[in-house]
Amino acid sequence: MTPGTIKRGQDISGNLTLDCDFCVVGSGAGGSVAAATLAAAGARVVILEEGGHHTRREFNMQEAWAYPTLYQDHGNRATEDLAIMILQGRTVGGGTTVNWTSSFRTPDRTLRLWADKFGVTGLDPATLAPHFEAVEHRLNIHPGSRDDVNRNNQKLWDGADKLGWRPELIHRNVKGCARLGYCGMGCPLDAKQSALVTYVPDAVAAGADLYANCRVTTIKRKGHRVESVSGEFLDEDLDRPSGRGITVHPSRGLVLAAGAINTPALLLRAGVGDDSGLVGKRTFLHPAVPMVGLFAEPVEGFYGAPQSVSCHHFADRGTNVGYFLEASPTHPMLASIAFPGFGDSHRHLAERLSFAQATIALMVDGQHDDPGGRVRCGADGRIRLAYPLGDGLREAARDAIKNMARLLLAAGATEVISLHAKPIHIRTDAEIGDLDRAQFGPNLHTLFSAHQMGGCPMGDDPKRSVVTSRGRHHQIENLWIVDGSIFPTAVGVNPQLSIYAHARLFAQAIARGG
Amino acid sequence: MIAPEPLTPHALARRSLVKKGMVGGALLFVGGALPIALRATRLGPEPRGPLKLLSRSEHAVFSAIAARVVPGPAADPTWPSAEALDCAGKVDALLARAHPSIGREFKQLLTLFENGLVGLLIQLAPTPFTRLSPTDQDTRLEHWRDSRIVIFRTGYQAVVRLAHATYFSSPEVYPLMGYPGPPEVPAFPLR
Ligand SMILES: Cc1cc2nc3c(=O)[nH]c(=O)nc-3n(C[C@H](O)[C@H](O)[C@H](O)COP(=O)(O)OP(=O)(O)OC[C@H]3O[C@@H](n4cnc5c(N)ncnc54)[C@H](O)[C@@H]3O)c2cc1C
Ligand code: SF4
Fold it and tell me: Which of A327, A388, A344, A390 is nearest to A158 (CA)?
C-alpha cells in the first residue's frame, strides 16, 4: 500500500481534476474515521478539508492565534442574532483538534428515543458496542483519574457530591497528558488523541490523499447519483479563494462529514439533496449556560485538564428539558467574552479570573418539543443559523442557574454570579430565589455551544429524515453523511465518541457496498 | 411529536426581528441611508498601519467604543488602553478575513453606532458617539445593551465581544488578570 499525502492549499499550483472511489468532505471526528475505514478496505479515498493543516509545533497556547486559526469563522461563529456563541473546529482533525477530550458513549436512553420517536432502526447499544470499543481503543479513551481533576473541576465535584448529585469522573482520549489545560488551542504535546494524530494519519497511511485549505462549494447530481464534487483552495493568510480549484469524480460515492451546520449548509448552497425540505432544520447545540463562582482561594481554571468531572443528575427531567453539568476552562479571552458588562464592572470580574470557577449547564435540546435551530446558506456561501430560545429551554436555563448556584455555594464559593447583562449576585442559599427574576432571551445573558448536532437527521422514513439509519441519503444513492448532523436530537452527552462510532459503523457498511 | 413554536404575537415579533440577522433589515436601511452622519466623527488617534477593511472614520468609531469597553487607564492606570493594544487594528485585520458580507455588516453597524439619528432614537441624544463625553458614551452603550429591540442588543454584543476578545487575548493584560500565561511545555513526547 502506497501511503497518501497531505497537501496544503499553498502546495497547489493549478486546477486539479481527480478520480477516486470515495470523496470525503471534512476531516473531523466523522470524516477521519470514515476515510480511514474506507481506505483500509482498499478504496481510493480523497479527503477535502476547508481548514489548514496545523500541528503541535504551531500550537502555541495563545488564544489570539488559536481561535482565528483553528475555529470556524475565525472564532466568531454565532447564531445570526449573536445570542449563542458557537465554538466549532475548522482545521485538519476538525473539532477534535480543539476539543476538551471528554468521551462518552451515546446514552441508551437517547438511542431508545431515536428508535421510538424518530424512526431510527438497527442502532441499539449492542450494534454500536464494537464500534465504541474500537474507537476507544484507537483514541486511548480510558476512565478518568483523580489526578486529572484540577481545582476548577474539583469545585464541581465537591458541590455535586455534597448535594448528593453523584458527580462522575470523565473518560478522556489522551496518552501522556501533562494536564497543561490547552486542549482548546490544540495540544502542544500530541497527548490528546484527536483525529489529527489518529484516524487522519491512519487514513493517509492506508493511501488516502488529504487536501487542506480546500472548501467544497459545489456538488453535481445526475438523477439519483452524485457525479462530481468541486471546491476552491483558500489562501490561508487572506482566507480568500486562491483562484485554484479542484473537481473530484468519486466513482463509488461522496461521504459528507463537514460537521453539523456546515454539511446542511453545503447541501443548501449546492442546491442538492434537500428533497425532504428538512436539510438544516432541527439543528441542535447543547446550548450551555455558564455560572461563575468566586472563591477565596485561587482556582486557576486555565490550567489542568479542562474537563474531568461531569454531573448528569439533571439530564433526565421528565417532561422538562434536561441538562448536564461540566466545567469550562477559564482562559482570559474565553472568560472575558463570557463575562457580562463592560469597562469597570467587567474589570471587576476580569481581575479575579484566577479565583473564578466556571460551571456550565449544557441543555439537551431536541428531545422535547423545542424545534432547534435552522441553517440557511445562499449562493454566496454565507452560513446563517437562526436558533430561537423557546420556553422549554428558558425554563431549563432558569432551573440550571439555580442549581449551579446551589452547587457552587456548597463547594464553598463566596459569591456566585449569573452571566446576565445585569448579573445577579448570590452569596447565600437564601438568595437563590433572586434568580427567579433572571430574564432569558437573545443577548440578555451568555450562552455558548461547543456541540453542534442535527440538520440532516437519520431515520427510515424519507419524509421525516434526510439519510437512512446507515447514513445513506434517501434520494441520492451514492451520497452518505457521517458527521454530527445525522443525529435526530442532541445526544445528551459530549458528542465526539457518538460521531466516531456511528461513522465507523456506517463506513464499514459503505465499504461493503452500502 | 415535535410541536412547532406557538405563534404568539411575541414569538412572531421575535422571529421577524431575529430573522433580520446580525445587523440587517430596517437598521441597515437607516444606517446605509445616512452615511453623512459620519462627517462629524471625531477621528482620534491614527491607525498604526494601513487599514484592510475599515475606513478611517469607522476605525475611529470602533476605537472610541473599545476605549470605553475595556478596563483602561482612566479607571486604573495599571490597565493598558485599547489603543495601546491596538484593538481597532486587530479587529480590522480579523474582519478583513471574514466573509465579505460580515465585513460589510460590521462597517454598517459602526455607522449606526455613530449615527446621530440612532442616538436620538435610542437615547434622545443626537450627538455622534465619538463626540459624546465618556459618561454619555457609557450610557449610549447601556442603551444598546438593554434595548428591548433584539437588533440593538445584537449590535452591542458584536462590538463588545470583539473589543474584549482582542484586548484580553493580549499577553500584556495576563498579569492583571492573575494569569501567568502558558506554562513551559515538557519535553516531547511525554509517554
Ligand atoms: C472547544 C470545543 C470543545 C469540545 N469539547 C468536546 C469534548 O470534550 N468532548 C466531545 O465529545 N466533544 C467536544 N466537542 C465537540 C466535538 O469536537 C465535535 O462534536 C466533533 O468534532 C464533531 O465531529 P464532526 O465530524 O461532526 O465535525 P468536525 O469535527 O467539526 O469536522 C468537520 C470538518 O469539516 C470541515 N468543513 C466544513 N465545511 C467544509 C467544506 N465546505 N469543505 C471542506 N471542509 C469543510 C471543517 O473545517 C471541519 O474540520 C468540542 C468542540 C469544541 C469546538
Ligand atoms: S491537558 Fe493534556 S491533552 Fe490537553 S493540551 Fe494539555 S497535555 Fe494536551
Answer: A327
